Amino acid sequence: MGTGMHGGLIYLRGDVQSHQLGREVGSAEMTDEEWAILQDILQEYATDFTLKESFQRNEFRKFYPQSARPYGRLYAY
Questions:
Q1: Residues 69 and 7: beta-carbon distance below 8 Å
Q2: Do 27 and 61 form a contact (C-beta atoms < 8 A)?
Q3: Which residues, in sequence order, are bridge partners of residue 9?
Q4: Residue 5 burial class via C-beta count within 10 angstroms: exposed 0-12, middle 13-18, buried 19 and up
Q5: Given CA atoms 32, 61, 11, 46 in this order, what sign does their dihedral have?
Q6: Which of 43, 46, 36, 34 is nearest to 10 (CA)?
Q7: Residues 62, 28: contact at Cβ < 8 Å?
Q8: What's the pTM value of the predicted model, to 2 decimals?
């Protein structure tokens, strides 16, 4: 997951094993601010699809690019 990632964030519900991640992807806990934003998005999603589900913070993990140019040395001299 995330191979070639060079920007943005991925919030994933569930477990990901380290061997399933691209080399350029890091993983971290969400900040309180990030969780608040994600909760708003999830609530809208649940409303749009008429889901009666509660989402728990500990079900999600944040993934981010470790470099803005993961392949820069391959294409630049």
A1: no
A2: yes
A3: none
A4: buried
A5: negative
A6: 34
A7: yes
A8: 0.78
pLDDT tens track for 6-64: 889 999 998 888 888 888 899 999 999 999 999 999 999 999 999 998 899 999 999 99
Residue owning tokens 């001299």: 77
Rounded CA separation 22/58 (Å):
22
CA 14 to chain centre: 11
**Long-range contacts made by residues 71-77, C-beta under 8 angstroms, separation at least 24?**
71/4, 71/6
Secondary structure (DSSP) of 21-49: S-TTEEEEPPPHHHHHHHHHHHHHHHHHT
